Amino acid sequence: MPTHPDGAPKALSEQLSVRDGYELALAAALGGRLSATLVKDVAGAEALLDRAGPDGAVALLVERGSHASLPARREGEPPKAGAERLLDLVSGPAQVMELAGRLLADAWVSSALEDLPVAFAGIAATRTGECGSRRGARCAS
């Protein structure tokens, strides 16, 4: 895992790049997870949280094995014509892209949030940072 010169792990935002003009859509879809610290395993998360102090911290486990019990999410269809898959607009190291794939499996960038289909189970965000969902998906806050 890449770290800062002092050995501290990096945040997701430091490892994940997004195409110019889509920064607010990514921030809306990921919310606080974007500033979460990337850790290799549960022991790394515990160490981070032990050092965090009264303000706390958020850790994201990068290793796939830590999510083995989670069911695989299937990528859905675009919620409306012209929507772009958010995952296709980001880049980063392989481990970070694997994590991004789990976080953004059914996240889309749409020109507007009106008229999202009732059956749409993913997350839709606009380039201006608005976020909407249906059927249980949650926009990050």
Unreliable spans are: 66-73
Q: Quick check: average pLDDT?
A: 84
How many extended strands?
A: 8
Distance between the termini: 26 Å
Question: What key phrases describe this protein's structure?
Answer:
single chain, 141 residues, alpha/beta, four-stranded mixed β-sheet, two-stranded antiparallel ribbon, 4 helices, elongated
Give a brief outline of the structure.
This protein has helices at 12-15, 23-30, 42-51, 94-103; strands spanning 17-18, 37-39, 59-61, 84-85, 90-91, 107-109, 123-125, 131-133. It has 141 residues and is an alpha/beta fold.
Layout of SSEs?
Elements: H1 12-15, E1 17-18, H2 23-30, E2 37-39, H3 42-51, E3 59-61, E4 84-85, E5 90-91, H4 94-103, E6 107-109, E7 123-125, E8 131-133
Parallel strand pairs: 2-3, 6-7
Antiparallel strand pairs: 1-5, 4-6, 7-8
Structure commentary:
By secondary structure, the chain is α/β, with parallel strands linked by helices. The chain has one domain (12-63, 77-133). It has helices at 12-15, 23-30, 42-51, 94-103; strands at residues 17-18, 37-39, 59-61, 84-85, 90-91, 107-109, 123-125, 131-133. The protein contains four helices and eight strands; from the N terminus they run αβαβαβββαβββ. The protein has a four-stranded mixed beta sheet, with helices on one face.
